[in-house]
């Protein structure tokens, strides 16, 4: 299934873990307000994949179902095909931008639980894309 991606090198995985830790720090130690989700990026900044608001909204709807693992795999593969030079961190950021609203609108979760859910999601995405090697 991932044979097309055998040449992909994810040598930046330690950097991604540092980024994930920074995100967790921001989420956990921010004031107790609603979780602030990242905004879609124009792709003009280094380390970002161009995202339209409509693309993110569509992906958010796809991630609301119970088949998230398949959606993550499909989208990660699509992004790698569309943006072959995309790093694992860029793909994670793209997916987190779409997943954050899913968690943010769940009632009954504390800010800490929301942050933990984002961290767990990021870890699952990282594990999925690391299997592309």
Q: Would you kindly provide a written description of the structure presented here, covering whatever features stand out?
A:
The chain is an all-alpha fold and 133 residues long. The protein has one domain (40-133). The chain contains 5 helices and no strands. The chain has helices at residues 13-29, 53-63, 68-82, 88-104, 111-130. Helix 2 packs across helix 4 and helix 3 crosses helix 5 (111-130). The termini are close together.
Number of helices: 5
The percent range for helix content is: 55-70%
Classification by helices and strands: mainly alpha
Uncertain segments are: 1-15
Q: What is the C-alpha radius of gyration, as a whole number of Å?
A: 14 Å
> What is the oligomeric state here?
single chain
* Strand portion: under 5%
Compressed to H and E, one letter per element, the order equals HHHHH
DSSP E strands, number: 0
Task: Give the tally of structural domains.
Answer: 1
């Amino acid at each position: 299934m991932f044979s097309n991606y055998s040449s992909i090198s994810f040598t930046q995985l330690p950097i991604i873990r540092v980024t994930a830790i920074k995100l967790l720090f921001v989420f956990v130690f921010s004031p107790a307000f609603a979780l602030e989700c990242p905004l879609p990026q124009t792709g003009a900044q280094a380390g970002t994949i161009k995202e339209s608001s409509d693309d993110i909204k569509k992906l958010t709807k796809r991630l609301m179902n119970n088949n998230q693992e398949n959606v993550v795999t499909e989208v990660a593969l699509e992004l790698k095909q569309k943006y072959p030079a995309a790093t694992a961190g860029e793909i994670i950021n793209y997916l987190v931008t779409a997943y954050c609203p899913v968690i943010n609108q769940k009632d009954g979760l504390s800010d800490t639980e929301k942050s933990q859910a984002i961290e767990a999601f990021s870890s699952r995405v990282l594990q999925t894309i690391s299997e592309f090697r």
